[in-house]
Amino acid sequence: MEFNATFLVSAISFILFTLIMNKIFYKPLEKVMAERQKFIDDAKADALNSSTKADAILKDRENRLNKSAADSKKLVADKINEANENSKAAAAKAKQKSREEIASAKSHLHDEALETTEGLKSRVKDLAEVISSKVLGMETRIENTDNEIVNRIMN
């Protein structure tokens, strides 16, 4: 093979072309590619960060929801128990009031029965006096001390 000036000019031209292309085309292209790779890496890291934050937020939300559900169940159970206690207390109060009213009514009826009995005793006495005076033909008087006779007549 022969090495002449053409070969040397071609070699120098190739080296100059490579240097010029390296400065004009490849270096800016490498810079753009490096920036894009950095942007992609940063975006990926941000996405992973956001994903872990989102997972933490979701777990916190679930914990809060579970706590709220438990609190609301407890509150409902407490209110139900309170309502049951209130209804039991109201029922007991109503029973006590009705017992008192029944006792009062019994006492009132007993008093009325005694009054009626006393009234009937005097009427029976008066009727006995009238009947005995009509049968005997003279006026008779029955004393109040003979309650046994009146009681026997009434019973």
Gyration radius, rounded? 60 Å
Helix content: over 70%
The gross shape turns out to be rod-shaped
- Contiguous low-pLDDT stretches (5 residues minimum) are 150-155
Instruction: Please state the structural category.
Output: mainly alpha
Q: β content, as a range? A: under 5%
What's the N-to-C terminus distance? Answer: 164 Å
What count of domains describes the coordinates? Answer: 1
Number of helices: 2
Number of strands: 0
The helix/strand order is: HH
What composes the largest sheet? none
Q: How confident is the prediction overall: mean pLDDT?
A: 87
How would you describe this structure to a colleague?
This protein is mostly helical. It has one domain. Helix content is 90%, strand content 0%. The protein contains two helices and no strands. The chain has helices spanning 5-136, 147-154. Helix 1 crosses helix 2 (147-154). It is rod-shaped, with a radius of gyration of 60 Å. The termini are far apart.
From the structure above, extract its key features.
155 residues; rod-shaped
Topology:
Layout: H1 5-136, H2 147-154
Helix pairs in contact: 1-2
